[in-house]
Amino acid sequence: MAGTYSQIYIQYVFAVKGRQNLLQLPWRTEVFKYISGIIEAKGQKSIIVNGVTDHVHVFVGLKPSMNISDLIRDIKNNSSKFINQQGWVKGKFSWQEGYGAFSYAHSQIDHVYQYISNQEEHHRKKTFKEEYLDFLKKFEIKYDDRYIFDDLE
What we know:
It is a single chain. This protein is 38% helix and 18% strand. The chain contains five helices and four strands; from the N terminus they run βαββαβααα. A four-stranded antiparallel β-sheet has the order 2-3-1-4, with helices on both faces. α1 packs antiparallel against α2. The longest helix is centred in the middle third of the chain and has 19 residues. The termini are far apart.
């Protein structure tokens, strides 16, 4: 009997609630390691997790048996619980509702990896909002401005 073999590459992008600058160094790297562990524990492939103070990029090799929304739900729920248990922020930490999920071909892995690994440099030139809207336009995703961001403003 023949087996089924596949790998789906997904980049998730999600923000801190209100896009607050709460993901501070050096504990931010601990959060990224924790997120990578969540992905691996779910039997998926964590390629890279990185971000800046107000948002995160997660690049995953996803098996078709894993639902895209189930994985991000588990990542957000478990990582926010971890951050709150550590007491790294005043009050309660949480992620903004919603996320972006963008698919890539195997030939694009290196490019996406480099893009995500250079987030600090990238965001010296472009805001998160500009970056996120660029993703939506690049992937031709229709959106309503009213439901893109949950700002504190």
